[in-house]
Design goal:
This protein is mainly alpha-helical. Helices cover 63% and strands 5% of the residues. It starts with a helix and ends in a 22-residue tail after the last helix.
Length: 323
């Protein structure tokens, strides 16, 4: 309950920041307009955030006839987690990554990139999908979608401040923000929104890793996946994520390629810390410190199911989860 209350406080802080930017642009009238926009944004994000995010990434829905093994893994894991079957999507992107969205377990969607399907073994992919289903079970997807929507709106509003200025108070109606103040707001408001996103996201990622390890039954499989995904994210760009950075914290690993400040204020905890925790979980459950073991090797030699997500384009000699 404490975690839910903390998240509510942080979402309220995002809304407060949005209203503060409105006040600086247009005084009390600007604050009121910002409040109405924030309320409308929240309602829109609640009902349509999943559709918006999936549309941003050009996600294509798949089923048991078009991606039987992927859908089969999701169905098996959802059953273990006590969740209704979510919709399953594939995003055309060479960067290996995945995310979940939706306002509730009954309206959830899980998306995987074509890149992740090409490089992970079945055990590794199960760990990733278990992580995403934990977000669904904890209703993190709704929270993070709303946070992403509001943070994006804050960035947009801050840019408006640069062009239009505003009133500092009701007693200084029409007093411009000034060039320096507008530039400062354009930089600081989105930065503050990112810090709030960071606070919301980091703890939830650790919890989702633990949940993913429990649902898949293989913490080392998820740890191995995270190593591969981190390497892939550093070398392969995610064009859609670069265009919509406010959605970056929806992914299992940070999809953005930036370094420096962007890396410093990443909404994801360090991959090294996540892997260390997963290895500790494996040690607690007596699974040792090796790789994913025989299950992954067996799958590599198993025939691919007809209609499975294609592995075309994989490097020669590559062995992924699909044969």
């Amino acid at each position: 309950m404490t975690g839910h209350f903390r998240t509510l406080v942080l979402i309220s802080a995002l809304m407060g920041l949005f209203m503060a930017v409105g006040y600086l642009i247009g005084g009390e009238a600007g604050m009121l307009v910002a409040f109405l926009i924030a309320a409308g944004t929240n309602l829109f994000a609640y009902w349509n955030g999943d559709k918006l995010v999936l549309s941003m990434y050009g996600a294509q829905e798949v089923d048991a006839s078009t991606a039987p093994e992927l859908v089969g893994i999701v169905r098996e894991l959802a059953g273990r987690a006590g969740l209704p079957m979510p919709r399953v999507y594939i995003v055309e992107s060479e960067q290996p990554n995945a995310f979940a969205t939706g306002r509730s377990p009954e309206h959830a969607a899980v998306a995987a990139t074509t890149g992740i399907l090409r490089i992970l073994t079945r055990d590794e992919l199960a760990g990733v999908l278990g992580h995403e289903l934990t977000h669904v079970r904890n209703r993190d997807s709704m929270t993070m979608t709303i946070a992403a929507t509001i943070a994006g709106a804050i960035g947009m509003l801050a840019h408006f401040a640069f062009f239009f200025g505003g009133a500092r108070s009701s007693n200084e109606r029409g007093s411009p923000l000034g060039a320096v103040g507008a530039i400062a707001m354009m930089i600081l408001a989105p930065l503050a929104a990112t810090l709030v996103q960071l606070a919301i996201s980091r703890g939830r990622e650790f919890e989702a890793d633990r949940g993913g390890a429990e649902i898949s039954g293989n913490p080392l499989g998820l740890a191995s996946a995270l190593m591969k995904l981190e390497a892939g994210a550093q070398t392969l760009p995610n064009v859609q994520a670069e265009q919509h950075p406010a959605t970056a914290h929806l992914f299992i690993v940070n999809p953005l390629s930036g370094e420096g400040m962007q890396s410093l204020f990443s909404t994801h905890p360090s991959t090294e810390a996540r892997i260390a925790r997963l290895r500790a979980i494996a040690a607690e459950t007596g699974q040792g410190s090796g790789g994913t073991g025989g299950a992954a090797r067996t799958l590599r030699h198993a025939p691919s199911a007809p209609g499975t997500v294609p592995s075309a384009g994989s490097p020669p000699g590559h062995s992924g989860p699909w044969g």
